[in-house]
Amino acid sequence: MNGISWHRDGGVLRIVLDRPDKLNAVNTPMLKELKARVNDGHDESVRVVVLTGAGRAFCSGGDLTGADTDGAVVAANEMVQAIAGLPKPVVAGVHGAAVGLGCSLALACDLVVAARSAFFQLAFTKVGLMPDGGASALA
Fold it and tell me: pTM for this one?
């Protein structure tokens, strides 16, 4: 649903960024769905949230080719706040790219487990801009 899949296994809530054809680039509906799934972590039976990406990347940042970008800045900030504010551990399982908002997403988590293939980049800094998704405060 909206590029996010999830399942529960005991006390583990596993959330997957599930747009591998776009390297899990996020759009507004996906960010809203991700926030809703993270908020499922408030359930008493959830002990930990694990966040990962399908395919060969964790998250390549914002989808710059799609049309679903209205409200993306607000949705991204709310999503990062939901992760950072969850009173339970959130673990990012990062493989491949964690770029731009994808890097901020990983930084918002309590623990990052990075595969050898993982790389992190705050894309906006390459052009002299502040990074998105609150990365300056999260780093």
Answer: 0.88
